[in-house]
Design a protein that fits this description.
Length: 357
Amino acid sequence: MHGEQKIKNLLRTVAQQNGSDLHLVVGRYPTIRVDGKLYPLTQENLLNDEDTKALSNVILTEDNKKKLIENGQVDFSYNFENKARFRTNVFYQKGYVSIAMRLISGKIRTLEELNASPSLYNFVKSNQGLLLITGPVGHGKSTTCAALIDHINHNEDKHIITIEDPIEYVYEQDRCIINQREVGQDVKDFPSALKAIFREDANVVLVGEMRDLETISTAMTAAETGHLIIGTLHTNDSSQTVDRIVDVFPAHQQNQIRSQMASVLLGVVSQRLIPQIGGGRIPAMEIMMKNSAVENLIRENKSFQIDSVIETSFRDGMISLDKSLADLVQKGVISIENALSYCKNKEYLQMLIGKNK
């Protein structure tokens, strides 16, 4: 079977099995990830050097082949028969070509469909400020961002710009004008795309990843000057998110950045996808909404105390990760074992579960 047919069959298998990822590595069977677990497709042949090279040639453009040789890896989105999109990374390991492809759902789901708290929609009612969606890789940050952007698209008249590497969800413009810019294709990098928004009359900007000083600094300035900025970070919780942003800056700027962040931050949503009883995964979310207590803690460099504000501000709509996990256990949606493996404080989680029985 030649490369093109083989990759089509494998990608179909991912979609049919409700998989999230496909891995093609020399010396192993093609492997798919379903509900967070890896399953080798043992009915296929073990992959050799020629196989992964041939499969990569099917999905790589000439331009991306050059980038792969120059940089040792390349990121792009792959459109499969106009039915599904895959966020793809092709890279070298031990001199061989490896491929990792993540399925991006064609349908943008609402927060309700994701079993996420609809209270998150309150964040995007603001005309300006910074909302951060955080969590480890592969825990649904992009999916939550897409739900928020699409909610604005259907409910308000705004100009939305997304800056992504690569573009994941594709939006159908409704009430909003939506411009989606892919780093490396439409624009050189995140900082230059962000600087351009000031001249593009944007209201809402989605920043696919806030990973360097220039991107973070420009995003904070934009959040101060009449833009709603939604950004993602690979951090585990609200206090770590605040620290990560401050730590990107040189020491002499950190007090000023704390002060700026205290004023522009709308909130931080930290999420994990937890295996559900009966299959599938469901988000558990820590939701921190900035109030005067949080604002003071950020200014005074006491972000480690944010956790206790979240725990005591349930009435304001805040929720700790452990409370979110305990609620899912009580509803019979996730197992106690899985809740314990994702929680921050095992004793506190067990107390929450016990208290509400």
